[in-house]
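Subject: sequence -> structure tokens, single chain

Hey, anyone have a minute? Need the predicted structure for the following. Not urgent.
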Amino acid sequence: MEHVMKEKLQNVQLGKAQQFRNVSVYPLFLEAKAVVDYLVLKEAIEQDLVVIREVDEGGHVPELVVVNNADKPLLILDGEELFGAKQNRVLNTTVLLHKKSATIIPVSCTEQGRWHYESKTFKDSGYIMSPRIRGVKNRSVQESLYRSGDYQSDQGAVWNGIHEQSVNASVQSPTGAMRDIHEARKADVGDYEQHFPCLEGQKGVLVSIGENVVGMDMVSNGGSYAMLHGKLVKSYLMDAILQETEPSNSIDQAKAQQFIDDIAECQ
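Reply:
Had a minute. Here:
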């Protein structure tokens, strides 16, 4: 697997940088054809091919059940938010679920002040957790993997991250919901979003805020990526509008490429 990942990363191609204010986005391309044909959350829910619910009537914060009724696997990304049921959650890791299957998935709560049913099943929130909070979550998930092999997060740290984002965004949510922050600042994010369109054949993004690369996301299927592009870009832009960094020139292609090369060399 390490060899496969390294080979894929070495074949990633950087498109021309898209830049607006303090944000630079490099579109990512990969010529290799996707080996697996899968659905993403948005299309599976729109086609009524997936049911996502609490593990039982009482619910259990760090786990949900996903019933994939489709004839294809289902891809749900790390940080992708689900809203409804007893409280909103995000995925603790990216999952590719078998066709015609029921799977328990690891999640974190993104709505501290609610624990009652608003609906029996979850919907697509339309948002992905911003990279800054995703980083907080993923560090604790990584520690859990090393310690016990489980994808458990530090729930308190996640709530603290959401609270900090709420304060920085000057948004008060009655239930401490991450989604309320994104909804309240939708117009500000939209001012940026129009400058970062999805290009034909694009399969990912590498993003910098100011002079710092803050992350990248990539999937194997261009059509699937096109459905994820808006949510992914908005997640990065939420961090951008809350950081007091001055408008700057785009990071150069060499620095963007070095970021990918460093990942390829990881053990």
